[in-house]
Structure of Putative D-galactonate transporter:
Amino acid sequence: MQWENKETVAAASSATGAKKTNVRWMVVAVLFFVTLINYADRASISLAGPGMAKELGLSVVDMGFIFSAFGWAYVIFQLPGGWLLDRFGSKMIYSLSILLWSLFTLMTGLAGFVTGATAVMVIFILRFLVGAAESPSFPANSRIVASWFPASERGTAAAIFNSAQYGSTVFFAPLMGWLAHTYGWHSVFTVLGLIGIAFLPVFRKLVHSPNRHTMVNAAELAYMEQGGALVNIDPDKQERAAHKGPRLSYLKQLLSSRMMLGIYFAQYCLNAIGFFFITWFPVYLVQEKHMSIMKAGMVAAIPAVCGFVGGIMGGFVSDMLIRRGMSLSLARKIPIVGGMVLCCIMVLCNYTDSESAVIFIMAMSFLGKGIGGMGWTVNADTAPKEIAGLSGSVLNTFSNSSSITTPVITGYILQVTGSFHAVLWFVIAHAVVVMLCYLFVVGKIKRFILTDTP
């Protein structure tokens, strides 16, 4: 199927006497900046943590509990967050999400009036609430991209907002480090909370459903809709009053679909690879390759940059293949499988002692992970219109479950074997599973159609 129908777009432009607008790219730019703030709030605890622990008298165990609070809430509230998105629409729920996570982040900066066990409880609760408030964010991003972009541009659009998770390190880590050093740990949460609140009016001004956006002309709307965009995805007031939200049977249908389950399990494995880099990669550089902590910190930033570049590359290449007439399935699977093949070269680090070789291999491996990390694009391609938010939440639940399991399993492997040799094989096994899922389980990538069962 050829998604981009140039004759239809030309006819719409001729009928309205106007060239099509490009508001959709402004919308995805807003999503990029919101996600930058989102990830900065997530990472704030790691940079503020040392000063917080010292001032409040917190132990390593205390900090471990505080660090875990966000992740537990983020996974637990995925499905409720997706349900709310489909029930009330992306703009309403995302706006509330931004407001709440910013307020809870701001309040964390005011928690210095307590110490010891009370401080642990207060900060744990606030970080738990930040995780709960942020839970609809990525499903909302995917839902908005599905409504605004034709299939021939959807890969690039999803790659843009997804790349913010890497870009946040570049944009906000220096700021947070400077704030913590100059003004204390409180200022990190205070400033980030205020940035989120300040950006909320921008989000509300610029992000709407395509069919209700005053800046979109008929030519752009026709272009998006003809290309497969779900321009009427959000319910209006009458529809919200008439319907009570997604049914439980819809969730059962998602979890009974071979295509959707293949996508979900692949996303679990993709995120597992990412969490190795986030949690254990610096430790690997210090313990296995005997780098200094300072050097390991600098080296660990290189894969993040490559992941950012790879993510944009994967989306761009996939969309280019669609524009050249390739089927949606092949256009998505080629970068995913190719990226995972490149990711597997990580295991070569087991067979070299050269620091330069290790850095290069890991950088190329994470570049491959970025290229193949198209789960959110595929979700936007396949999620049913009625439950696009819920589908994204299921995807994110599978994805972030690996954030709990991967660090723990890696720790046990290290304890049993005493080296990272088996760990690297464990990590690339996830890349192999991603390939197997897309080659033999997912099948044809297409919009999943719900059956209207009670």
The chain has a mean pLDDT of 88. Residues 23-56 form the longest helix (34 residues). The chain has 21 helices and no strands.
